[in-house]
Amino acid sequence: MSAGAPLRFGINGFGRIGRCVFWALHQRGLSDRLHLVQINDPGELDTLRLLARYDSTHGRFDVPVAPTDDGFEVAGLRTRFSKAESVSDIRWDDLDLVMECSGRDPDRARAQGHLAQGARRVQVGAPAGADMPLTLIRGINHDQLTDQTHYSLGSCTTNCLGVVFQALRGIGIDAGTYTTIHSYTNDQVLVDVAHRDPRRARAAAHSMVPTSTNALNALEWVMPTIAGKVVGYSMRVPTLNVSCVDMTLQLDQPMSRDEIQSRFVAAANGALKGLLAITDEPLVSIDFCGHPASAIVDLGLLQVTGSLVRIVAWYDNEWGYANRMLDTALQLHELNAKEFA
């Protein structure tokens, strides 16, 4: 990458997050700094082109998508497609970054596989284990991104929890629990079928499904001060998109509701602006579809009694996370520009 040139990147996995990255890239007008050169997905090209234009959750993509022999062209920029099933069969020639969005085996070995196939850096869109060189949560430790060749951005829930805890930094937390009330995902099933998780073996659109979440593990790697103090699980619900964290914290001292609320207001308007938002309107989940923040604290649902605090934070588990992927790619572009300046 030369000075002033856009960062050339690829996406592995053109599913929910991969397509949201693509849409948000053009919606935000970032193509002058981030050029999407290649997408790898084993799906049929004609189907992937259609899914790039129409979506049941986020609607129609209004920018023309023109077919080419090996992919498509958007706003004068061509993106090529490959359909390798295995990382070892993908060629990432001359790419500054690969975004790993497939959800398959998100670990250090897979990231290193992309590096071996030509990628200069790999950004994993899922929690990827304690042995990753860096788990990066924007608003908490994104300034630690330097020369790491591979790193993880945690999960959508990790990012939501992270900015909520960051806004409360400096307040002692003795213990806590949370439930992420989460829209179903494509790891679940339409009708009952065998699954490694017996609860996820049940029809996603017909029941609320309790299941595990590894969001907190990734957050503990970034914020060790909460390690062992907070526990939680996920309740998958039959909605397409938008989730929320319902969290109860036991503080080490009593605080007023106004004191807690002022922390969130200050953070949303200051250090965490764009990552943490607040609302005092009586909204429901669909109202946050397409919201780019990692967390939107619902002030109307904030409850405080003595040292016990209950917090509800909404998040678009697709769109918000895809924007964090792009934010971090922009940070890489700036780092590269300084290197070549």
UniProtKB/TrEMBL annotation:
Residue numbers annotated as active site: C156 (nucleophile)
Matching InterPro entries: GlycerAld/Erythrose_P_DH, GlycerAld_3-P_DH_cat, GlycerAld_3-P_DH_NAD(P)-bd, NAD(P)-bd_dom_sf
UniProt KW Oxidoreductase keyword: yes
Keywords of the record: NAD, Nucleotide-binding, Oxidoreductase
Record-marked site positions (Activates thiol group during catalysis): H182
Domain of life: Bacteria
Domain Glyceraldehyde 3-phosphate dehydrogenase NAD(P) binding span(s) in chain numbering: 7-156
MF terms in GO: NAD binding; oxidoreductase activity, acting on the aldehyde or oxo group of donors, NAD or NADP as acceptor
Residues the entry annotates as binding NAD(+): R16, I17, D41, N317
Family annotation (SMART domains): Gp_dh_N
Family the UniProt entry places it in: Belongs to the glyceraldehyde-3-phosphate dehydrogenase family.
Name recorded for this polypeptide: Erythrose-4-phosphate dehydrogenase
